[in-house]
Amino acid sequence: MAYILGFDLGTSSCKAALYDEKLELVCYTTQEYPTIIPSPGWAEQPAEQWWDAFCNNTKGCLKKAGVYPQQVAAVGIDTMGSVALPVDKNGQALHPGLLWMDRRSMDQCRQIDEILGDMLYEISGNRNDPSDTAPKLMWFMQERPEIYEKTHRFLHANGYLVMKLTGAFTQDRTECGLTLLCDTRTGEWSDKLIRPLGLDREKLPAIHDCHDIVGEVTASAAEACGLAKGTAVVAGAMDCVVSALGTGCLHEGDVYMAGGTVTALGIVGDTMQPNRALHLHNHVVPGKFVRVGAVDFGGGGLRWFRNMLGEKDYHELDRLAGLAPPGNDGLLFLPYMVGQRSPLYNSATTGVMFGLTPDHEKKHLARMFMEGTSYAVRNVLHIFKEASNTPKEVRLTGGMSNSSVWTQTLSDITGVPIEVTGASDVATLGDAATAAVAVGWFKNYNEAFAGQRAQLSYAPISGHKAVYDAMFDVYMNVFRQILPSYDYVKQRLQSMEIPATEE
User: How many angstroms separate the CA atoms of 417 and 459, rounded?
Assistant: First the structure.
């Protein structure tokens, strides 16, 4: 029996999964890790942390499944997007990776707008934001020139893991859009965007299709991670895009949602169709595209609340949320805790609790995060509706799908049926499919997912529609009233001289 290893490295945790020749899950392991916040608005992780997590999870998964390393035919890897990691010619990280939620490059964003103007959107199909790659690279060039000069290549997180496994410096095509340095139509680097910014194209890795075999596991990597020397490794993908593949969203108009730390919604298109409110990515499937809107700390908000309470898992929060009524007795939450990319593009946003009274209890707080994220999802679906058609269903993956309370709430608030497909986290399934196509197990992605069926289905409860329609109107009114205040509050806080706390 042969197997494929799929590996998903997210913002807060990673998952390793083994799949058999029918792409059925055999074994699954997971591990959490922290994010470093050196200053307000900054967010970093050391690359060595990712490699340690890969090795620990891979060894654990093989041992748990009783699978020999030689039985693994190939490895597919997805990771969080828009990471900027400088490495030297030996692949040694020169600085912790700047994560997607890192906002330190605001000045560089303004410079990019002044230099490129409308040409940026015309070529990349994306708006400029400090979460993206180009402003981060400019930050290194301007603020850490000694690191920039030593950099051999700037890698995304999956590119780093691929390099650790094979020695090859690569980037997959799904990362192109949010680099702001690619022509998304072709999925290739654009000199029209790179040269005016003064960036060195030689520091950018070669771009590959997600299912391209870019190398084999080296002897040293095999010893470290437990795989066999010579195992094929594919280029991989961005997590929110490979989830489109893993949910079987391969055709025009298919909609999926990856409910992790970031709650991302994507709609598949046969043509580029950029939209200024949405991110635009190349699909894992060559020639197709994915437009994405998100709640940048959707699942992350509930995780933050879980940690504040000192809970070890989410079961108690799920139970509590189920005790509160639909509409949450008027308690609302705007879930924009870490700044917001698509569709708001506002770095100053924060979480906002509205409607709190002495009658509210812990159960209301737990439900508040679930309903708040769901209202924000409904807003993204409205943008999809304006751009094309109302989706007939949304295919859900990620940690959110493990909560029946949250999934039902999502269906009730959006008014759309929710289909939970395949494994609870299908990013690893998408990784396995890219690797399986690469080694010839399937002719194409349509064949790989021909037999996929929904695992669970949730339909809107008609009796909840009136209360959620009314509460969504309140949510949007609160949001519109508060939106202008975000920048004002941020400016005031930055101008304040806060005295040091005495120990």
Answer: 5
Residue 211 and residue 236: Cα distance in Å, rounded? Answer: 7
Q: Which token pair is 448?
A: 């790989």
* Identical fold between 3-240 and 249-421+461-497: yes
Strands 97-98 and 44-45: antiparallel
Half-sphere exposure of 220 (CA within 13 A, CB side): 5
Give the CATH superfamily of 3-240: ATPase, nucleotide binding domain (3.30.420.40)
Q: Which one-letter amino acid corresponds to residue 79?
A: T
Distance, C-alpha 106 to centroid of its chain: 21
**pLDDT, tens digit only, all 503 positions of the chain:** 999 999 999 998 999 999 999 999 999 999 999 999 999 889 999 999 999 999 999 999 999 999 999 999 999 999 999 999 999 999 999 999 999 999 999 999 999 999 999 999 999 999 999 999 999 999 999 999 999 999 999 999 999 999 999 999 999 999 999 999 999 999 999 999 999 999 999 999 999 999 999 999 999 999 999 999 999 999 999 998 999 999 999 999 999 998 888 898 999 999 998 999 999 999 999 999 999 999 988 999 999 999 999 988 889 999 999 999 999 999 999 999 988 888 888 888 999 999 999 999 999 999 999 999 999 999 999 998 886 667 889 999 888 888 999 999 999 999 999 999 765 568 899 999 999 999 999 999 999 988 677 778 999 999 999 999 999 999 999 999 999 998 888 777 777 765 655 55
Sequence letter at residue 220: S
β-sheet bridge partners, residue 86: 154
For strands 289-295 and 263-269, give the pairing. antiparallel
Contact 277, 384 (CB under 8 A): no
CA 233 – CA 77 distance, rounded (Å): 8
Which two three-digit tokens encode residue 250? Answer: 């391969």
Peptide bond into 69 cis (omega under 30): no
Q: Where are the domains of the chain?
A: 3-240, 249-421+461-497
At 474, list the tokens: 């309140």
Question: If DSSP codes are grouped into helix, strand and coil, which group holds residue 64?
Answer: helix
In terms of DSSP bridges, do strands 153-155 and 85-87 run parallel, antiparallel, or are they unpaired?
Answer: antiparallel
CATH class, range 249-421+461-497? alpha beta
* Residue whose pair of structure tokens reads 């005790």 in the numeric block: 323
Query: Which stretches of 235-351 are assigned E, i.e. beta strand?
Result: 237-238, 255-259, 263-269, 279-282, 289-295, 332-334
**Taking the model in full, what pTM does it have?**
0.87
CB 331 within 8 A of CB 414: no
The set of residues, in sequence order, having a beta carbon less than 8 Å from that of 404 and lying 6+ positions away, is 318, 458
Identify whether the C-beta of residue 297 lies closer than 8 Å to the C-beta of residue 262: yes
